Amino acid sequence: MGTNGSTMLQPLRQGLPPLDPSAVCDAASRALPARYEAVREARQFTRATLDQWELGDRFDDVCLVVSELVTNALRHALPTASAAHVCEQGSSVRLHLMHWTERLVCAVRDPSQDSPVARDTDDFSAESGRGLFLVDSFSDGWGWHPLAGTLGGKVVWALFRLRPAG
Hints:
Blueprint: H1 6-9, E1 26-32, H2 37-52, H3 59-77, H4 83-89, E2 93-99, E3 103-110, H5 131-138, E4 142-146, E5 154-161
Antiparallel strand pairs: 1-2, 2-3, 3-5, 4-5
């Protein structure tokens, strides 16, 4: 892996907003198990990473978005029928955190080709269907892109603008 993280970003380039992968300051990623405990692991990894990057003040918003993206990947991209296939391959869900000077991107890769769908719902007591609404509300933008080649699947990302240091 390149020291600037650009090697890790290679398969994600197309799925990211227009940011120069070679200019990334920091990058970290974590494979997540195909179980719902993965959401807790993703939050812990996000907390440790943001603390290391001295971005702990953004933890609440970023953590909420990471939780929703990982939950969506587990709920919609890993149907029960393919659980055995996922176990054979190891983890098919991966969380990437990338930090530029004034930007933070959270990206979750999953094996599904299906596009994420934000449901229009006025029922705020509903148990599900609000995930992408929350991602949209707490981040400065989000999107997704299918992955080509051996990885397959897609990347769903959320972008956070950071205040300049100082």
